């Protein structure tokens, strides 16, 4: 009899069930993260969906299921970077990205101060924006941010400090 050293395969539906459960629990937080990074909800929805599709494809290769959320979060950040890179290339060829037109209802809900912060946040360099969004909107700690962005925790702290200084300057709150 031939000996097989590979682990037994999961039942066919197990990966779908686990990824679906993770999606239901965390999709809104990941969607908010993507919206803050790319600037519009339809694109953010695509980024989040792609992240979960990638997670599903790679589920069998995950060494630790506990890191599935970190994988999805990193995929959302990387997918958002790809979108922004494509927009940048398009701009070089004279094709400008048209930001979404906010409805009157959403304008009324979103206060003027918050809107100013969001506009200033979009003007920050990519890494600063990502660190601030992950820290203050996603509520992640330095180690989690470092893992999601592939940088050292000390870089997270430095980038956050510089990002906050730049954000204050953009908002005219520098003392």
From TrEMBL:
Q: Which UniProt keywords apply?
A: DNA-binding, Sigma factor, Transcription, Transcription regulation
**Has keyword DNA-binding?**
yes
**Domain of life the protein comes from:** Bacteria
Q: Where is the RNA polymerase sigma factor 70 region 4 type domain?
A: 115-167
Which intervals hold domain RNA polymerase sigma-70 region? 22-88
Protein family membership: Belongs to the sigma-70 factor family. ECF subfamily.
Q: What is this protein called?
A: SigE family RNA polymerase sigma factor
């Amino acid at each position: 009899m031939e000996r097989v050293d590979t682990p037994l395969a999961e039942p066919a539906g197990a990966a779908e069930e686990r990824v679906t459960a993770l999606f239901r629990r965390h999709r809104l937080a990941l969607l908010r993260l993507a919206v803050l990074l790319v600037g519009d909800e339809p694109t953010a929805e695509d980024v989040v969906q792609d992240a979960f599709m990638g997670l599903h494809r790679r589920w069998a290769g995950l060494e630790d299921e506990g890191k599935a959320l970190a994988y999805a979060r990193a995929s959302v950040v990387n997918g958002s970077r790809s979108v922004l890179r494509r927009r940048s290339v398009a701009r070089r060829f004279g094709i400008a990205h048209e930001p979404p037109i906010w409805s009157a209802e959403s304008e009324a809900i979103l206060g003027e101060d918050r809107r100013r912060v969001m506009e200033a946040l979009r003007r920050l360099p990519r890494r600063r924006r990502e660190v601030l969004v992950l820290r203050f909107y996603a509520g992640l700690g330095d180690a989690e941010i470092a893992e999601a962005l592939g940088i050292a925790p000390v870089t997270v702290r430095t980038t956050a400090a510089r990002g906050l200084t730049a954000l204050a300057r953009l908002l005219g709150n520098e003392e």
